[in-house]
Specification:
This protein is mostly helical. It contains six helices and no strands.
């Protein structure tokens, strides 16, 4: 297993640890969970860099890296939803966008086309991870709502962009 794939697997392994720390609720657990989330988020960026820079791109990585990213982000959002910090509609937007874009990519592959990650998707991922990091801190409710809004808007925009740029993939006559 190459370095990029090892980092992806580390991210996957950190997800239950992150959630366990939050559920244990010991003094300072939110800050420990933040540290775990930051570490996991950094592995997302580092493994992508290593895979591209050192030509370590593998089919395993193409599958597991985005899955690990989605599970990490959705796990964090579900936690915040369960403690009343994030509204369920925001989580629903993120989950719906992920299903929609994944479905679009499946249809594209069936038509012999690959839809690569766009810049708006990368901006969405970065903004979401930064906002989720902030939400681990004792921030004012207004800033929390700004984070929720940033997550929702960047998610909606990137999903919209994927569909606008690849609308032809959905051949409505087939």
């Amino acid at each position: 297993m190459n370095t990029a794939n090892k980092l992806t697997m580390l991210r996957v392994a950190l997800i239950p640890v992150y959630l366990l720390v939050l559920y244990l609720g010991f003094p300072g657990s939110t800050l420990v969970a933040l540290g775990i989330f930051v570490l996991a988020s950094i592995t997302d960026f580092v493994d992508g860099y290593i895979a591209r820079h050192y030509n370590q791109t593998t089919d395993f990585g193409k599958f597991m890296d985005p899955l690990a990213d989605k599970v990490l982000v959705i796990t964090s959002m579900l936690w915040f939803c369960s403690v009343g910090v994030m509204p369920a509609w925001a989580v629903a937007i993120v989950v719906a966008r992920e299903f929609a874009v994944s479905g679009l990519r499946l249809v594209a592959v069936d038509n012999g086309r690959v839809i690569a990650a766009g810049w708006s998707g990368k901006v969405k991922t970065f903004a979401t991870m930064v906002c989720l990091c902030l939400m681990h801190l004792p921030i004012p409710p207004a800033l929390n709502w700004v984070c929720v809004a940033v997550i929702a808007v960047t998610t909606l925009y990137s999903g919209w962009e994927y569909f606008v740029k690849n609308w032809d993939v959905l051949n409505w006559n087939k």
